[in-house]
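Folded chain entry —
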Amino acid sequence: MRFFSRLLMWCVIGATTVSAEGALPQSPSPSSSALTLQDCYHLALQRSEDLKTQSENIAQAEARYQQALGNVLPHLSFNVSESLQDTSGISGGDGGVGGTFTRRERPEVKFIVRQPLFSGFREFAAMSSFKSESRRATLLFNRASKLLFQDVARAFYLVVQLETDLGNIRTLIQLTQERVKELQERVRLGKSRPSEVLTVQSQQAAQRSLEEQIKEQILTARELLSFLTGNDVGERSLRDELPNSEIVEPEAMLLAKTDQRSDVQAQREQVLSQRARVQLAKGSLLPTASLLGNYYIKRVGFQSGINWDILLSLEAPLFQGGTARAQVKEAASQLQQAELRLSRLSRDVRSEIKRASVALASGVAQAKALEEAFNKAKESYTLQVREYRLGLVNNLEVLQAMNAMQDTRRSWDRTLVQSKLAFLQLKVATEELP
């Protein structure tokens, strides 16, 4: 329990939460001496164009909902018009109906109110669909932020792994140099052959070549991390604060979190949206009713005494060439597709969680075994050096023991990093990171 308490404290990444003033948490200072994974994630959140694009999808979905809501509410407009016509060839008429239509000028000022009364519930179906799309866009944004964390973690720990590997290679080079000095002294005393020195120096040259190769890989990995964070981390040191994982939750507990994952919930919202679209398509088969009202500020002629009028209209579709029914079938088919995608996604998520759990359990077990192997290899190397000085073993056996010790150390360190990545991948798969 203490392990998970420490982990949850470490995982409180505040960049996905917004303060009361609407501001994101402060990003790490570029002049800081070391960057943690949390710092890199903060920087990536502020830089990521993909997340900003996702946030615009949320705004667009909310705007579409407002548009659908606007179709239900009354529309009020103010209209001013004036009609001019040539009346030079018309003799003076009376002030009745004829006189009104033969006037040279016919000004009119009015307020217009339009109110849809019934449209086959299409507006409400559209509102329901767009509301589901808005929730879906928000859930996809949440999922994208978790995937961004996963990308940053992979880049971060790739650098950590390579730099740890570089440290192990340099340790091996140092041990090899000590062997060269000892052999050179033994050659001077006539206790060893010059060929033994050359053998060790050849190995040392190969180790330096590997050192340069790892340096190049570190530069590439740091460039990837710089790209994700939007900041140059080429000269910044990285500090790994994540403890080694030793606990794997039961698989049943992990799989129970499948339905709560953002992308699964987003696909469920997509199903709801498609169901609403089916109702929207069916609405075109029903009659529509609307109300139009005018309130006149200024009129001329025989209508000058009429201040308002109302028009109630009702339209019932009888035959549309099969278009409406085809739209209903299309919407029903799209609903079926959305339900199938939800089923497939749920299975994919369960499989992802299982694979991440297996990888974590395997990594923890391997790390423990390699730790024991390294301790034994280190003890063996110490004994080989002592026995070599007593003439019980040859130089080749000492080199083999030294290489075996350092190879085991490199494998152990790599497994530790991979187990941390497997742990974070499992947390991303179950969305337990804030």
